[in-house]
Amino acid sequence: MNPETDSTEILKPKSSPKISNHDILYGKPITPIQRLAVMDDDEFEEIILEWAFEYLAPKYAKVRRCGGAGDKGRDVIGVINLTTKEWDNYQCKHYGTKLTPTNFYIELGKLCYYTFTKAYTIPKNYYVVGKEGVGTSLGDLLDDPIALRDKLIANWERYVEPKITTKDSGKIKLENDL
After folding, report:
1. Of 85, 87, 91, 89, nearest in space to 105 by CA
2. What is the pTM of this model?
3. 90: β partners
């Protein structure tokens, strides 16, 4: 091939490319829901904190993150009134599947235990924030407080008692006033 005498015509591709130059340099755009999937647990809680702080700012006098070991079932809290200490709890779960009763009993158990021991007051609202949402079974229980209470009691020994705290040998029995 002689570059001085030979010429090669550059043809336009027959179809538009599926990836743009921008996509090559920065990656294909992903939806906000897809973005949640690539976050880890801490980043997910930080997003919920930012959302509560920025978007719900008129509702709250104070917003803070409690998440992590020792959070007592409180990932993000929004204090509605500093004087009366009314507050909302945002329990965040970054699971790969929809939330089920069996993977949520422990969080409800923490709420019962820590309000009973007066570690904190009963929240005005308890929000379940899951990356994949709430499954049908848990959703049905959340809509029926009596059934939720009965199922939590029935499943306390298996799903709550051994996991609620590392104190007292990690066993919080559902007995007496509790």
Report:
1. 91
2. 0.79
3. 76, 127
